[in-house]
Amino acid sequence: MQSPQSRWVTPLIWRLLLRFASVAIPLLCRLRVTGDVPDAMRGGPLVLAGNHIGNYDPPAHVAACARRRIAPRMMATGGLFRAPLFGWMMRASGHIPVHRGRADVGDAVAQATEALRHGSVVFIYPEGRIGLDPAMWPERPKTGLARMALATGAPVVPVAVWGTHEVIAYHGAGAMARTAFTALFRRPVVRVHFGEPVDLSDLRIGDVGAAQRASDRIMDAITEALAPLREHELRLPRHVDHTRPLSTARVRRPARRP
Fold first, then answer.
1. Dist. CA 1–CA 190, nearest whole Å
2. Which candidate, 52, 216, 246, places its Cα nearest to that of 140?
3. Which of 56, 89, 177, 183 has its CA 20 to 30 A from that of 170?
């Protein structure tokens, strides 16, 4: 338990950006947010775990959190933190960089764990990338999220998203700009759902296989929260993004997958 003086306080710039996001991000889509986070968990420590299907996932998740009056610290690719102006806003807002491909990539889990110990809400994509599963179901996760949750006792809430893949293309500056521009007129429906907290109470950090079992439960919970959002597209998505490569290398077959 942290003292009140040591608890992390949401920076003013991030509070302002969240208000802006709640208005600006739905300009490219019709955002539908369902579910919520229990009041007792809302102020943190809390882990929000989302599936990752497209480049518009972070904006959609941020706007959904803003609607639910949650100010998460986002774990995001390190390149964003090096961008002019935007990188400064990311750092000033207290977000956590993940430097993929670098020797210090593991520092992100340590930073996020410390953030949870100081009462933060941390948002993470357990898959570690935009998924390439041909059916667009969650892929096999990395265990960093589970280790963070088990080490701190922070509850985990799944936050599923669907429809963001129709807003911005996966790859290519031209394709991404074109789809974003046409989204102003198409305004595809983007659904975000806050699911039920994942029960990890029987697992202990350090026990053999605990992190993997926790990871599997979390991904099953995300899959369960996702299924109703794509109830008419359970086998394959209707929208096909031809810039998105497909891979079965990390496909998983969870017990709750429809």
1. 37
2. 216
3. 89
| Chain position carrying tokens 């202990």 | 204
Q: What share of the chain is helix, strand, coil (3-state, %, to 5)?
A: 40, 15, 45
- What kind of fold does domain 19-230 have according to CATH? Glycerol-3-phosphate (1)-acyltransferase (3.40.1130)
List pLDDT tens digits, range 194-248: 999 999 999 998 888 999 999 999 999 999 999 999 999 999 999 999 999 999 9
Q: What is the mean pLDDT of the segment spanning 153-163? A: 97
The secondary structure element, H or E, covering residue 9 is none
Q: How far apart are CA 212 and CA 141, in angstroms?
A: 9
Q: For residue 1, name the pLDDT band (cuts at 50, 70, 90).
A: very low
Tokens (6 digits) for 201 = 């109470």
The three-state secondary structure class of 190 is strand
Query: Strands (DSSP E) along the chain, which ranges?
Result: 30-35, 46-50, 73-77, 96-98, 121-124, 156-162, 189-194
Q: Half-sphere exposure of 239 toward its Cβ, with a 13 Å CA cutoff?
A: 19
- Show me where the domains of the chain are located: 19-230
